[in-house]
Amino acid sequence: MESFGRICSVIGSDRPGRKVGGLLRPEHLSRALELLIKASSVAVVTGFFVPACGAPETDGPGGAVMLGRALERCGRSVTLYTDARCFSVLESCSLAVEGPAVRSVETGEEILESSPSLLVFIERLGRAADGRYYNMRAEDISSVTAPLDDAAPLALIAGIPVLAVGDGGNEAGMGNFRGDLSSILPEYAHCLSVTQASVTLTADVSDWGGYALAAMLSLAAGEWVGPEEEEIDRMLASLVGAGAVDGVTRRGEPTVDSFSVSVHRAVVRSLQEIMSSAILNTKRAPL
Fold it and tell me: How far apart are CA 65 and CA 171, in angstroms?
């Protein structure tokens, strides 16, 4: 749990100033890792469209691709899912680092047709209490948002666990923290997602939650299976090349939530250092 506490300080130190990432606790990471280890086939859902720019945002694909690839390296079957508006961007990102296959769907039911043993959401919108979808500017973007979060309640009813990552409160899975988030963001309470998950991770940037999950899988693999620093550059270049924009700045530049490549590289570097130390300590532990 010491390693998980250190991860919390890396990905949940409230760098954006929204106070959302600070809700992350080591036990959330521990429970998330248990779900990943137990899974044999995983569906990972991402993609957030920015209608003002007519393009998907850069946050989400990188974390989803790196988690999916880490799971594949651990012998799991993985498919990445998104909607038609976000498909080309996510596919480009995955191809840039030899990540999992990507599939375009328009409903939650389509995601569950493959009968995954675990469903994961990373930076994917979840419905608010009024059934609408809102961005962080409190704009209703339901008209450009496919209801892929519908897969979450369907999965839970079917006994399939759901793992989610979000950084704003409007994402699938963040219904788990709706009470806390309503207090933290009272003016935004009506926009908060009510979609729940078995385990939800809050993070300063959703990609960082995906990177952390990939990093933690290294404990099970006994070696590093997470992202490399230079791969962050490659993914961001591919995302921008495919038309993605930063969701905060709304510019087509290699940044995520206004954070530069160097910041994301530093997060990956810190995660690798934490996990390398944890793996070494595990190998040294007496049988």
Answer: 18
Instruction: Measure the CA dihedral 105/109/113/119, to 10°.
Output: 90
Q: Is 163 helix (H, G, I), strand (E, B) or coil?
A: strand
Select from 21, 279, 16, 14 the least CA-distant residue to 165.
21
- Hey, how many other C-beta atoms are within 10 angstroms of the C-beta on 190? 13
Select from 269, 264, 273, 276 the least CA-distant residue to 208: 264
Write down the CATH number for the domain with range 2-284.
Answer: 3.90.1640.20
State the sign of the Cα–Cα–Cα–Cα dihedral 229, 163, 171, 104. positive
Name the residue ranges covered by the structural domains of the chain: 2-284
pTM: 0.96
Strand (E) or helix (H) holding 69: helix 61-73
The 3-state DSSP class for residue 160 equals coil
At residue 84, φ and ψ (nearest 5 deg) are -60, -35
- With both helix axes pointing from N to C terminus, report the angle between 26-38 and 2-11 in degrees, rounded to the nearest 10: 110
User: Which residues are paired to 103 by β-bridges?
Assistant: 81
Q: Are 86 and 224 in contact (CB under 8 A)?
A: no
Sign of the CA dihedral with 169 first, then 172, 173, and 178 last: positive
Measured CA angle at 217 (ends 214, 222), to 5 deg: 130
Q: How many residues does the chain have?
A: 287
pLDDT in tens, 135-152: 999 999 999 999 999 999
Vertex 107 angle, CA 101 and 112, to 5°? 60
- Which strand (E) or helix (H) includes residue 279? helix 261-284
Both structure tokens of 108? 């939650």
Q: How far apart are CA 61 and CA 210, in angstroms?
A: 9
- Per residue in 194-233, pLDDT (tens digit) is 999 999 999 999 999 999 999 999 999 999 999 999 999 9
